[in-house]
């Protein structure tokens, strides 16, 4: 199986400058390649420039600008061009499918945060000084950078990426040939119901709290954003104070993201260690957090009726802060590594169906927290009922698959 490891880098001041320059030059290469494609399409009779054509120009570009493009890894620059090629492939696929295309855009230096090295040893070598007590990664043009390796790396390092998050630097290792470590069987299965009031509720009746990380940092974040908003949005040169204000906002968001990931990892690990099979709803988070459609007034032309936009915005913020999609992805990865089974089921009417008699009715859901069947009178917590129905549907799916 394939596993990814992410470690914090501890570069020196000089190495941090070199890493920033590496991102800047790769960003310039990306934007120049994008400009070439746009210009060829617009001014050369809609000619398509492909990755092979642009990759063949790299030798000339490196020879023309040895101080910037010539100092970095050739393979990493090819990976940057492949990144642009994938963006255009996705663009043409959306056009063919009749979706909103979203043409690839130029990237600012603040939005280009990753450089990929497709092969270990080609421009970037993991643990290049094995006799050194400190783990290090060697990056071409930067040097040997110290790594805070908090756990051992298994398998064979296949690809390496250097990533910037705020003012921190990370190395991301993609390893294959990693053996799965199966846990001992427990003989237990569980269904989970994701929510906003509770992070999740199990079919055993256990509620896992939903820590409001964004809400806890809301006051500090709002103050930092207000300070950032005092600077002009369009200026020719960003001042030192403006950059400091932007870093403050980014730092708060990064802390919230790390807290959310830590909670998701710990919760998923507990479920994987406790149960052999885990069932959850197949959630469409993008659809659930979509803005409500405007309601034109039939009486007054040009006017609109109330559409609960403010209330929906609060709910969307709570759903996105909970991070259902991130948690379910982490749960699937941990379950695969431990030899567990994860089943996604249809979420329709899981909170309206009675687990006792099977009656499905909107009236069964008395309140957000209370379920009372109108047919048999079964009363229970609404989230527990949803988890029980998820587990029941997962059993049917597994029986059909067998």
Q: Could you characterize what this model shows?
A:
- The protein has helices at residues 13-43, 51-55, 58-64, 74-96, 213-216, 218-229, 240-274, 285-288, 309-322, 324-338, 382-401; strands at 3-10, 114-117, 124-126, 136-139, 143-148, 156-165, 168-176, 189-194, 198-202, 207-209, 277-281, 295-296, 304-305, 341-345, 370-372, 379-381.
- It folds into two domains: 3-176, no CATH class; 189-401, no CATH class.
- Helix 1 crosses helix 4 (74-96) and helix 7 packs across helix 10 (324-338).
- The model has no long low-confidence stretch (mean pLDDT 90).
- It is an alpha+beta fold.
General shape: globular
Separate helix tally? 11
> What is the C-alpha radius of gyration, as a whole number of Å?
26 Å
Which whole number gives the mean pLDDT?
90
Helix-strand category: alpha+beta
Low-pLDDT stretches: none
Beta-strand proportion:
15-25%
What is the number of domains? Answer: 2
Helix content: 40-55%
- Characterize the main sheet: 7 strands, antiparallel
């Amino acid at each position: 199986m394939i596993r990814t490891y992410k470690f914090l880098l501890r570069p020196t001041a000089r190495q941090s400058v070199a890493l920033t320059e590496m991102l800047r030059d790769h960003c310039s290469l990306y934007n120049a390649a994008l400009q070439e494609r746009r210009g060829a399409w617009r001014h050369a009779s809609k000619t398509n420039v492909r990755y092979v054509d642009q990759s063949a120009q790299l030798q000339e570009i490196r020879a023309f600008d040895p101080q910037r493009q010539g100092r970095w890894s050739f393979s990493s620059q090819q990976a940057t061009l492949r990144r642009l090629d994938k963006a255009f492939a996705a663009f043409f696929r959306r056009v063919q499918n009749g979706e909103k295309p979203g043409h690839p855009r130029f990237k600012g230096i603040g939005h280009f945060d990753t450089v990929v090295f497709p092969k270990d040893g080609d421009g970037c070598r993991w643990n290049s000084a094995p006799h050194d007590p400190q783990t290090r990664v060697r990056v071409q043009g930067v040097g040997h950078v110290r790594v805070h390796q908090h756990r051992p790396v298994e398998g064979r390092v296949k690809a390496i990426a250097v990533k910037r998050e705020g003012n921190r630097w990370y190395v991301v290792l993609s390893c294959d040939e990693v053996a799965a470590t199966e846990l001992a069987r427990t003989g237990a299965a569980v269904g989970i119901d994701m929510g906003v009031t509770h992070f999740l509720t199990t079919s055993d009746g256990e509620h896992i709290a939903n820590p409001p990380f964004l809400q806890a940092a809301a006051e500090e974040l709002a103050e930092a954003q207000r300070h950032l908003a005092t600077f002009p949005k369009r200026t020719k040169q960003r001042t030192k104070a403006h950059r400091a204000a932007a870093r403050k906002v980014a730092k708060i968001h990064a802390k919230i993201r790390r807290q959310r990931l830590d909670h998701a990892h710990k919760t998923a690990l507990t479920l994987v260690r406790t149960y052999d099979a885990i069932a959850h709803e197949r959630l469409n988070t993008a659809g659930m957090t979509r803005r409500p459609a405007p309601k034109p007034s039939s009486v007054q032309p040009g006017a609109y009726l109330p559409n609960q936009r403010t209330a929906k915005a609060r709910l969307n913020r709570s759903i996105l802060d909970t991070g259902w999609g991130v948690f379910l992805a982490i749960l699937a990865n941990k379950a695969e590594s431990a030899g567990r089974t994860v089943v996604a089921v249809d979420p329709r009417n899981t909170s309206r169906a009675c687990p006792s008699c099977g009656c499905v009715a909107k009236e069964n859901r008395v309140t957000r927290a209370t379920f009372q069947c109108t047919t048999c009178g079964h009363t229970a917590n609404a989230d527990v009922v949803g988890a029980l129905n998820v587990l029941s549907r997962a059993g049917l799916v597994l029986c059909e698959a067998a």
